[in-house]
Amino acid sequence: MRLLIGQDIGLAYLLPLALEVLRDNPMAEGHMYEGDLLSAVLTRSPGVWEEWPELGLELGAIVSGLADLPVPLSQKTARFLALQP
User: Fold this and answer.
1) pLDDT in tens, 19-58
2) Residues whose CB is less than 8 angstroms from the CB of residue 29 and which lie 6 or more positions away in sequence, other chains included
3) C-alpha distance from residue 61 to each of 9, 10, 64 (Å)
4) Degrees (nearest 5) of the Cα angle 83, 80, 55?
5) Which residues lie closer than 8 Å to 77 by C-beta, 6 or more apart?
6) Binning pLDDT at 50, 70 and 90, where does residue 85 land?
7) What sign for the dihedral angle of Cα 57, 59, 55, 42?
């Protein structure tokens, strides 16, 4: 799932599924490293979140309460949150 999301393939179908996983485990691992699914979702272009604002709001709710993230993931989270309305 993280590979396809990272390539912007099937986002209309995969993003809701990814958010379902992330709701239960924000640091879910997609066979690369802990939090790689979250990283793939967070780094989609701002246009994705403009197209599906409800998904952006849900992702914002998921990540806004996370603490003690690894620095790269923390930076991606901060960039994502800064772009949200």
Assistant:
1) 999 999 999 887 778 899 999 999 999 999 999 999 999 9
2) 35, 36, 37
3) 24, 23, 5
4) 90
5) 42, 63, 66, 69
6) confident
7) positive
